[in-house]
UniProtKB/TrEMBL annotation:
Keywords: Membrane, Transmembrane, Transmembrane helix
Name of the protein this chain belongs to: Thiomethylgalactoside permease II
BP term (GO), one: carbohydrate transport
Keyword NADP: no
NCBIfam families: gph (TIGR00792)
Gene Ontology CC entries for this record: plasma membrane
UniProt keyword Ribosomal protein, yes or no: no
Taxon lineage: Bacteria, Bacillati, Bacillota, Clostridia, Lachnospirales
Pfam families linked to this entry: MFS_2
InterPro entries with a match to the protein in the record: MFS_2 (IPR039672), MFS_trans_sf (IPR036259), Na/Gal_symport (IPR001927)
Residues that span the membrane, as ranges: 12-31, 37-55, 76-101, 107-136, 148-167, 173-196, 229-251, 263-282, 294-312, 318-339, 360-385, 405-427
PANTHER family for this protein: MAJOR FACILITATOR SUPERFAMILY (MFS) PROFILE DOMAIN-CONTAINING PROTEIN (PTHR11328:SF24), MAJOR FACILITATOR SUPERFAMILY DOMAIN-CONTAINING PROTEIN (PTHR11328)
GO molecular function: symporter activity
Length: 458
C-alpha cells in the first residue's frame, strides 16, 4: 500500500509520545516543587498566569511558522529533531532553582524557565500530532498511529505516577530525579527523528500542491474561526479546568489524606492495569461504534465514579483504591481517544475552507491543552490558599486541612465534569462523515457526492 506506515515508524511514534509525556507529567509536579522550595501558592498561580500570556502568543505564532516554513527534509520532522534538545534543557532548568537565592530571584527564574519550557513543549507537541497527517492519508493508519501513541502515554504515566514518588527522595530530591528522567526520555524520543517518513508531503511537493506558505494571516484566522468543532472540543475542558481545583493535588492528597507521599505510587499502581484494559476496550469499541460516542459515554462513567468516590471518602483505603482502579477504565479510553479528534477537525477545516492548515490546527490543540493545564494549576494553587495551606516540604498543616483538601478536590471535579459534558453535546462530527470529507479533500470524490452521503449537514 502506498500510504502504509512501517512497524518501525509506529513503534518510534509511540516511543516519542512516551518520552514527551514524561516531560509533561513532570510539569504536573511543578506546583508541589515550587511550594517545596518556599514559593507561596499565590505566587505559583501568578507565575502560571504570566506564562499563559506568553503561551497565548507563542502557540499561534509557531503554528503559523510551521504552516509557512517548508524544510527540505519535511514538514514536521525537523521540528521534532529540534525538540529533542529543547524540551529536556527547559525541563531541567525549571526543576533546578537554587533554594538559597532570594524569593524574587526564585520567582524570576521560575517564570522565565516555565516560559522556556512552554515554548519547547510547543516545538514537540504540534509536530508529533501533526506528522500523522503527513505520514499517511489513510484514516485507518492515522487511527492506528494515534492509538499506539496514546498507549505509550499510559506507560509514561507509570514513570511519573509510580516511579517518581517512590524514587524522588532516594535519588536526592527533585533536581537529580528530573535530570535522570529527562535523559531517559530523550533516548525514547530520538528514534522517530531517524525513521519517520512524511509521504504525503513528498507526494504534494512532487505534484506541486499543498503550497501552505502562500496563506496569509487572515486565511489562518479564518480557518480557525470556521472550525467550530475544533473550538468546541478543546474549549469544553476549559470549564472543567476552572472548577477542578484538585487537578494538581495528587501528592498533597497522598501526603495529608492517605498517610504519605509514597501512597501516590501505590494508588497509581492499582490504576495501571484497568487503564490498559480501558485502552484496549477503546480500540475494540471504535471498530464497531463511532469513537465520539465511545468517548462521551466513558466520560459519563468517569463522572459517576467521581460522585461515588466523593461520597465514600478517603478513610477506607480499600474502598478508595478500588474506586480509583475502576476509574482507570474510562481513563484508558480517554487517553486513547482524546486526541483522535484533531485530525478529524483538520479534515473538517480543510473541507470548509479549502486550506491545508496543519500547523495552525495542531497548534490550537497544543494551546488549549497547555491552557487547560495552566488554568488548572492557577486555580488549584489559589484554592490551596483558601483552605489554609502552609508552604514548605514537611510542614505540619492545620487541623481539618485534609477534609477540606478532599472536599474541594472532589466537588470541583464533579461540577466541572457536568459542565464539560453539556458543552460536548454541541460536537457533531462522526467517523462516517469525516471519512467522506477526507476523500473529498484528497480529490477522490466530489463535494456533492460527499454531502449526499453524510449523516449530518455541515
Amino acid at each position: 500500500m502506498e500510504n502504509a506506515v512501517t512497524k518501525r515508524e509506529k513503534i518510534s511514534y509511540g516511543l516519542y509520545f512516551m518520552g514527551q509525556n514524561v516531560f509533561y507529567g513532570l510539569i504536573g509536579y511543578m506546583t508541589t516543587y515550587f511550594t517545596d522550595i518556599g514559593i507561596t501558592a499565590a505566587l505559583v498561580a501568578i507565575v502560571a498566569l504570566i506564562t499563559k500570556v506568553w503561551d497565548a502568543i507563542n502557540d499561534p505564532i509557531f503554528g503559523m511558522i510551521m504552516d509557512k516554513v517548508n524544510f527540505k527534509k519535511g514538514k514536521f520532522l525537523p521540528w521534532l529533531q529540534i525538540s529533542v534538545i529543547a524540551i529536556p534543557v527547559a525541563t531541567i532548568l525549571l526543576f533546578t532553582i537554587p533554594t538559597g537565592i532570594p524569593m524574587m530571584a526564585k520567582i524570576i527564574w521560575a517564570t522565565l524557565a516555565y516560559m522556556l519550557w512552554d515554548t519547547a513543549y510547543t516545538l514537540c507537541d504540534v509536530p508529533i500530532f501533526g506528522i500523522v497527517t503527513t505520514m499517511t492519508t489513510d484514516q485507518k493508519e492515522r487511527i492506528s498511529l494515534n492509538s499506539i501513541g496514546r498507549m505509550f502515554v499510559i506507560f509514561s504515566g507509570i514513570v511519573t505516577g509510580i516511579v517518581l514518588p517512590l524514587v524522588r527522595q532516594r535519588l536526592g530530591g527533585w533536581a537529580t530525579t528530573v535530570i535522570v528522567l529527562s535523559l531517559l526520555s530523550v533516548v525514547m524520543m530520538i528514534p522517530i527523528c531517524l525513521f519517520a517518513k512524511e509521504r504525503v508531503i513528498e507526494k504534494e511537493r512532487a505534484l506541486d500542491e499543498g503550497a501552505e506558505d502562500s496563506y496569509t494571516l487572515r486565511d489562518m484566522a479564518e480557518c480557525l474561526r470556521k472550525n467550530k468543532y475544533l473550538l468546541i472540543f478543546f474549549a469544553a475542558p476549559l470549564i472543567s479546568s476552572l472548577l477542578n481545583v484538585g487537578a494538581n493535588w495528587g501528592l498533597y492528597v497522598a501526603r495529608y489524606c492517605l498517610g504519605g507521599e509514597e501512597a501516590a505510587s501505590y494508588v497509581s499502581m492499582t490504576v495501571i492495569i484497568p487503564t490498559l484494559i480501558g485502552a484496549v476496550m477503546a480500540v475494540e469499541l471504535c471498530k464497531k461504534y463511532d469513537k465520539f460516542k465511545v468517548f462521551y459515554i466513558s466520560y459519563v462513567f468517569a463522572l459517576l465514579l467521581g460522585i461515588v468516590r466523593f461520597m465514600a471518602g478517603y478513610e477506607n483505603m480499600t474502598v478508595y483504591v478500588t474506586l480509583n482502579a475502576l476509574g482507570g477504565i474510562p481513563l484508558g479510553i480517554a487517553v486513547i481517544l482524546q486526541y483522535q479528534f484533531t485530525p478529524d477537525c483538520y479534515e473538517y477545516g480543510q473541507y470548509k475552507t479549502g486550506l491545508k492548515m496543519r500547523g495552525v490546527t495542531f497548534a490550537a490543540q497544543t494551546f488549549f491543552t497547555k491552557l487547560n493545564g495552566a488554568i488548572a494549576t492557577a486555580v488549584s494553587v489559589f484554592a490551596l490558599t483558601l483552605i489554609g495551606f502552609r508552604e514548605g516540604e514537611g510542614v505540619v498543616q492545620a487541623a481539618g486541612f485534609a477534609d477540606k483538601l478532599w472536599t474541594f478536590s472532589c466537588l470541583g471535579s464533579i461540577i466541572g465534569g457536568i459542565c464539560t459534558l453539556l458543552m460536548l453535546r454541541l460536537y457533531k462530527l462522526n467517523d462516517h462523515d469525516v471519512q467522506l470529507m477526507a476523500k473529498c479533500n484528497n480529490g477522490e470524490i466530489s463535494r456533492e457526492e460527499a454531502e449526499s452521503q453524510m449523516i449530518n449537514q455541515y
